[in-house]
UniProtKB/TrEMBL annotation, chains A, B:
Residues 12-72 form the HTH tetR-type domain. Keywords: DNA-binding, Transcription, Transcription regulation. This is TetR family transcriptional regulator. The keyword Nucleotide-binding does not apply. Pfam families: TetR_C_11, TetR_N. It comes from the Bacteria. Residues 35-54 bind DNA.
Amino acid sequence: MVEVRRGRARSEVTRRAILAATRDELTAHGYDRLSIDRIAAAAGAGKQTVYRWYPSKVALVADCLLADRVFDGVAPVADTGDLVADLRVWLRAFAAQFDRPDTAAFIRAATAAAAESDQVAIRFYEQSTAAAETALAERLRAGEAAGQLKPGVAAATAQSLIGAMLYRLLTRQPVTAEFADQLVSALPVR
Amino acid sequence: MVEVRRGRARSEVTRRAILAATRDELTAHGYDRLSIDRIAAAAGAGKQTVYRWYPSKVALVADCLLADRVFDGVAPVADTGDLVADLRVWLRAFAAQFDRPDTAAFIRAATAAAAESDQVAIRFYEQSTAAAETALAERLRAGEAAGQLKPGVAAATAQSLIGAMLYRLLTRQPVTAEFADQLVSALPVR
């Protein structure tokens, strides 16, 4: 029993070392040029050990980003009663994340991984993106209930706000506070 | 002179064969599992020839998609005088493209390539995506001028409409006519 536990603990240490090495590799070389050889060497593990845990590059990067909780910390959208002001504050903070070079690099790696694999896309969505979408949609629905927003648009609007930021990131346009404000300004508020 | 021309023609034939093989490879195996070995074999070219033309997988896929004009044929948005109806027609057609499995696979490959490479992202944007964005923004601006849309929102709205579709594709949610209609319904029309 003790031996099994020790084996498990060792495995977990190796897995964490692999994920830490992957994070460094992503920062230094990006997703496209990521090398399993370098990651194995940096983690002090055999290449076969890496492949035993992670059969593909996509699976490795996905787990690295999710383990890092890169997309955690999605704040709820405040409800001060002023829908436009609340959305502006939240979207500006969200945009600021997208505009940081390190976060932007991680979001691009996650996007590449999600673009390539259905399984990874669904994991990312369920474990990270959906939280931002839900936070936004809930605040928008409260706005609808308060008569401050056209009824029935909350779900699609939450997706298009996040989609707009992602589009800017992918087309290499800055994701600024001004852009966040423009998005809020383009909502059907009342 | 004739020899040079023949050499050029031969090169061009090889390049087209490589791109055609890449297209087949993308359809059969997807971006992540794309194999340069298989592409070279299918094109009847040496692996070194492929690398001489295309130093990276990203460059190869980008050129394949752009050569195929996968993203061409972005129709101008009709102007019948009815902004909501015109946007609905155009966005439904755009959504139908996103929802076709073959086009969806190409857009995902393009997204993965753009996520990984600044250079590819900018090429895609300039040579393809910007056309859709411009078509939408122009129609939205005409709507603003006609007093049918809140002034000043055209540019951000064009980006968020396209971004919303991309977001659905990446999170593996269907890009339906209903979703297109919801997006139009969430615009600040007057």
